[in-house]
Specification:
Layout lengths: L1 E2 L2 H6 L3 H16 L9 E5 L3 E9 L3 E9 L11 E9 L5 E6 H20 L6 E5 L3 H10 L6 E5 L3 H13 L4 E3 L12 E4 L17 E4 L12 H6 L1 E4 L2 H7 L1 H4 L8 E3 H4 L10 E4 L4 H12 L2
Parallel strand pairs: 1-6, 7-8, 7-10, 8-9, 10-11, 11-14, 12-13, 12-14
Antiparallel strand pairs: 2-3, 3-4, 4-5, 5-6
Length: about 300
Amino acid sequence: MKVLSRDATTAALPYDDLAAALAEVLIASREKRVVAPERAVHSLPNAGTLLLMPAWDEKLGVLKRVSVHPANSERGLPQVQAEVLVFDARTGEPRLLLDGAVVTARRTAALSLLAVRTLQIRKPRQVLIIGAGAQARAHLEALAALQPERVYVYNRTFSRAARLTAHGRGLGLSVQTVPFPDEVAPAVDLIVTATASPAPVVPEEVSDSAMVVAVGAFTPAMAELPPALVAKARLYVDTLEGARAEAGDLIQAGVDWARVSSLAEALDAPPQEGGPVIFKSVGSALWGLAAARLVYGT
């Protein structure tokens, strides 16, 4: 079994190529050619969470182990620890071990990039990123492909926002730190929320043409979006099964699930004009499978 380092895993997963691989898996999932059982979620000590996520197609399988530890930032450690095991689905033989944190960050950001390209009517000129951790960084890198005119960054800890801002400028983007998201949220075209907040971080009022990509909350008890915004927006999710079980942003807003569409459905019928769009992502082993297929060359 080959083990890919963090740097090697990163190099093997360019955002544009990964977005294309994700689109292929979305189509395959719609056609029932891939399998992803509901992920298992368990509580760990010190408010940690363990997630186990398998998926497979006719050739490859993946098993992703993720643990989330909110207190790790105080220890100087990443909050997310993970590995992705890639195996031959026909024989069970292990083939690759990928850096799970890299896979998690890059496949989530690439899926958001695919969602923006699919769901947003106009190319976003101004972007607000709320959060400054690994997911915020990955989204800043992925969204650079859209060449926005200006990116705003907000984080409760100013030093972390400043580091992300500097990274964005190193990518050639015009990036500015803001003291409060409310100052720019009503005017931007795209808002990305990548926090571990249990309470809403986005104001209720956003532009009618805005898109909100919410990736931080991953349990029913977490919600980055206010119910009033959810109530008036057109709603899309990465998978309906995962969202119904884990999308606290939608669950706490009491959504009528008949209003919610999957990204796979939107590939054929993207939205037209008519108010803000929300894309809520809670994750799926299918996205790890897409990454494995890209790395493995299938």
